[in-house]
Design brief:
mainly alpha, globular
Length: 156
């Protein structure tokens, strides 16, 4: 890996971290995105988000993570970086278990691509499994300390 390749790699990683951080801050403090209007639109939006995210992840993997693997960091380090990026990218307030599950799924597709060499199979599997699940069913709602308490019955 030449110094120019290393600089490009670091630049893309920094841009990714800044982009994910900006989206996370906007989601956390401004309540974006707004709730969907219907389940069908939500499902279509989830599928489109899955396609866009999968395309970005595949490009990032092919251009950057592969270079890091070749540079001598080794497959475990590359997969840990993938897990961190995909987990943060799918983060939503109060739903860290879903984000971790999505991160593990994204890391599995990176591993699948690394061993099969097929970008299409990896991207298609990611879109079909993650995209509709995000949109149609939505992420699972886990109880957090901030969730409202159940209402008490009048006889209690």
């Amino acid at each position: 890996m030449t110094p120019a390749d290393l600089q490009l790699t670091l630049l893309v990683w920094a841009a990714t971290v800044l982009l994910v951080g900006a989206v996370a801050l906007r989601t956390r403090f401004l309540g974006w995105p707004p709730p969907p209007r219907s389940r069908k639109l939500s499902g279509l939006g989830g599928l489109l988000r899955g396609v866009v995210v999968a395309a970005w992840e595949e490009w990032l993997y092919r251009q950057q993570i592969q270079r890091l693997l070749v540079a001598g960091l080794g497959a475990p380090m590359g997969l840990l970086l993938a897990l961190a990026i995909f987990t943060v990218a799918h983060w939503r307030p109060g739903e860290w278990r879903f984000a971790l599950l999505a991160g593990l799924a994204g890391t599995f597709w990176v591993w699948l691509y690394h061993h099969t060499g097929s970008v299409g199979a990896s991207a298609l599997a990611h879109c079909l499994l993650i995209g509709p699940w995000l949109g149609v069913w939505g992420p699972p709602r886990f109880r957090t300390s901030r969730s409202p308490r159940p209402s008490r019955r009048w006889w209690e």
